[in-house]
């Protein structure tokens, strides 16, 4: 049976937005597994994700204070239908990212990360898939705020979609 995933990072609530867009909450409500790659900013948002998610995996980011750092790890891993996921907030500069992440996460098939607010979807020379969903609340220099939806099916990451957050 396929697993529906939601990938989100850099929500920055309430600093960049008062709340998470309804479109994102709708996706969270439908997902089998939700990944949040850090920069929650306030623990109340983590509480809401925990209430609404069937299964939640999260890490803290550089903008997350002591309470979030007590409740969340710096890195997280999970195996979903045979696909090995790892997650971290920061991966450093874009140049050399794939090789650097292969060395840091040699047992992962997919690495989820955040920090830059820039969507990213690449595959390293040895097959590590790197995914950054961007930010659903702070697009910075991007054309739109974003998150990702994905499907794990038959022991593989079968589908990844970058989703633009609708305004209004």
TrEMBL record:
Transmembrane segments: none annotated. The keyword Metal-binding applies. It comes from the Bacteria. Its EC number is 3.1.4.-. Residues 4-148 form the Calcineurin-like phosphoesterase domain. The keyword Secreted does not apply. It holds the Pfam family Metallophos_2. Keywords: Metal-binding. Its cofactor is a divalent metal cation. Belongs to the metallophosphoesterase superfamily. YfcE family. This is Phosphoesterase. It comes from Pseudarthrobacter defluvii.
């Amino acid at each position: 049976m396929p697993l529906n995933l939601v990938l989100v990072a850099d929500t920055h609530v309430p600093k960049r937005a008062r709340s998470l867009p309804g479109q994102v909450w709708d996706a969270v409500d439908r997902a089998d597994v939700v990944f949040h790659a850090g920069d929650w900013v306030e623990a109340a948002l983590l509480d809401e994700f925990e209430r609404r998610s069937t299964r939640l995996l999260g890490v803290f980011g550089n903008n997350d204070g002591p309470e979030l750092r007590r409740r969340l790890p710096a890195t997280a891993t999970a195996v979903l239908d045979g696909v090995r996921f790892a997650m971290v907030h920061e991966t450093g500069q874009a140049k050399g990212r794939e090789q650097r992440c292969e060395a840091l996460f040699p047992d992962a098939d997919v690495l989820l990360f955040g920090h830059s607010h820039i969507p990213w979807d690449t595959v390293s020379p040895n097959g590590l898939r790197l995914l950054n969903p961007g930010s659903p609340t702070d697009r910075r220099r991007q054309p739109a705020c974003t998150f990702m939806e994905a499907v794990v099916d038959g022991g593989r990451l079968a589908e990844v979609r970058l989703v633009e957050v609708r305004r209004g």
